[in-house]
Amino acid sequence: MTNATTALSTRRLGSTGPTVSALGLGCMGMSYAYGPVDDTESTQLLRRAVERGVTLFDTADLYGWGHNEQLVGRALAPVRDQVLIATKFGITRKPGSDFSGPSPADGRPEYVRSSVEASLRRLGTDHIDLYYQHRADPTVPIEETVGAMAELVAAGKVRHLGLSEAAPDTIRRAVAVHPIAAVQTEWSLFARDIEDEVVPTCRELGIAVVPYSPLGRGMLGGTVSNLDDLAADDFRRTLPWWRPENLVVNQRLLDQVQAVAANHDATPGQVALAWVLAKGPATGADVVPIPGTKRERYLVSNLAALDLRLEPAELAELDALRPAGHRVANEGETNRVTAPA
Questions:
Q1: Residue range 318-329, pLDDT digits in tens
Q2: Which residues are known catalytic residues?
């Protein structure tokens, strides 16, 4: 890895969090859910991301059941002081389990404490910059879980706290215990449900929104157009967007995104990212998307979206798009989605 890095624009993770690159990198697909993986290629990608100015890297203990944390930790070890690593705990799927049914969650304080120690070992670091509860445990009051997470901050093992796919009431109750820097949730042109309550709640409380899958899990990026493009074990085969009855409608929406992209000599994926980046007060400074990829060419393309400015009329046109099919097969309130993220 070279020492030279490219400067990217930055945004702060809420009123209490750190400053990070305006686009982070979601690392899940390097180990989990999206077909075959290649550690050598992924390591190179992670290091190229640092060279290009990315400072926020997102992983979880679930991804590859520890493999992704080990991969990220090894790849970023030479530049650990230049980057922020976010990881998550709380989903307790067993290795080899499929993606059907609700995500089992564990929010017990003792589980929080054991999980952070395991993540620290796998990452090879003495602290985690941003520690998320991956999914709320409906059997454990959020106050107890966040209380245990706050103890990790006091002990210096964690710098900042976050929640993933949390409902508004859960967010409010968590903040009453300890400051929350970020709420990670799916948000894209194809996933809009958080705009009614979750985003306003975060803004009221000074919490950043970290959108995962801002490219519609590949559909908006042009990398996936139908089920034939997916590996046999790719979890996206379970998503309603790709059902034949929905795909015809969604393809027409993609054509509209492509038309906007043509106005800017850009790709549909860049338009999708520019739309998410433009959300929020003024510059959307409280929104930090983390598009995931396993390929350097897509990393480069995604980062170019930081320079794309959409016209107000274009943003309004994109706002009006509504896809066919929910973003996941089943949705709940406290434990909001079943898809991996």
A1: 999 888 666 654
A2: 63
